[in-house]
Amino acid sequence: MVHIAAAGPVDEDIRPGEKAVELPAGFDAGLYFIGRIRTPWTERGACPRRGDAQEGPVCTIEIAPRWAQALTGVADCPRLQVLYWMNRARRDLVLQSPRHDGDTRGTFALRSPVRPNPIASSVVQLVAVEGLNVHVRGLDCLDGTPLLDLKVQHD
Amino acid sequence: MVHIAAAGPVDEDIRPGEKAVELPAGFDAGLYFIGRIRTPWTERGACPRRGDAQEGPVCTIEIAPRWAQALTGVADCPRLQVLYWMNRARRDLVLQSPRHDGDTRGTFALRSPVRPNPIASSVVQLVAVEGLNVHVRGLDCLDGTPLLDLKVQHD
Q1: What does the alpha-carbon distance between residue A75 and residue B85 come to, in Å, rounded to a whole number?
Q2: Which residues of chain A does B29 touch, with a Cβ-Cβ cutoff of 8 Å?
């Protein structure tokens, strides 16, 4: 197991009813950031709670040049699943009291960014592929969010 | 950026038309394995190509004790999204020729386990929560697969 230093600021506020646990001493696997997501939202409070694949604004997934050929055929995929890394979220809460309802629930009964592995998953509608840029509707993340994966979505 | 040694054997075969790239020198973020998935399939060739949330066999997600309280409320979530780590997959292919059709496509136009970050996503139907064990239908992975996340699925 290996430590990786936290990158950038992490949001550390805790609300009534929330509970943190001690994190494991090291990581079990490593992730590559394979691109960045460009959105209109530069503060967390401005992000919509959930992306809208029909009516939401067009956002751009910028793929790093190393992975360019992995885009072959993506223009023929009307729906895509996007996995990205919520790098500003704390990872140690097991009980959470979401700001929008205040009920306390377990992390696995929520889709909050705060979770042991802060991987978000969104299903988006393809607008166009232009070189290394994939334009889509349906995202709700901060501008600059690191990309982990892009997959065809069949259903 | 930090290196993490590969854990266990990785499948390294390559088929006609496939293309590998050089992987980045280090990782950008780290993952915790938060449990294990128990399924009837002990060889990759035996796994179904796609899980069936209605008719598939009941599989069991075993949560590590540290995260027990994160299960609070999961019993009330009829559908769940499961993220897991396909630890046997190589990560460097940008073009792939899947065994079942032979067409060569980009990695992002496929859902193959072989991808820069081998994170799989399945939507499953909850059967029961029993202590640290979450019984579900709809998985298609190898027995012993490391768990990354469990989230309520709203749609």
Answers
A1: 27
A2: 4, 7, 30-31, 33, 85, 87, 146
User: Cα–Cα distance between A75 and A86 in angstroms, integer?
Assistant: 26
Residue matched to tokens 């075969």: B13
DSSP string covering A19-63, please?
EE-PPPSSBSEEE---EEEE-S--SGGGS-SS--TTTSPEEEEEE
Residues from chain A that touch B68, judged by Cβ atoms under 8 A, are 94
Query: Which residue among A22, A34, A72 sits closest to B116, beta carbon to beta carbon?
Result: A34
Q: Which amino acid is at A45?
A: G
* Identity of the residue in B85, B108, B152 whose CB atom sits nearest the CB atom of A74: B108
Per-residue model confidence as pLDDT tens digits over A11-31? 777 888 999 999 999 999 999
Residue count of chain B = 155
pTM of the model: 0.93
- Set of chain B residues whose Cβ sits within 8 Å of the Cβ of A72: 94-95, 104-106, 109
- A67-121 pLDDT, tens digit per residue, is 999 999 999 999 999 999 998 899 999 999 987 777 999 999 999 999 999 999 9
CA distances from B93 to A147, B19, B108, B135 (A): 17, 5, 10, 34
In chain A the domains, ranked by start, together with CATH numbers, are 32-90+116-152 (2.40.30.70)
A70 and B152 within 8 Å at the Cβ level: the answer is no
ipTM given for this complex: 0.92
Closest CA to B111 of A55, A93, A64, A151: A151
The dihedral of CA A106, A112, A118, A119: what is its sign?
positive
Measured between beta carbons, the chain B residues lying within 8 angstroms of A151 are 108, 110-111, 115, 121
CA distance B41 to chain A (A): 23
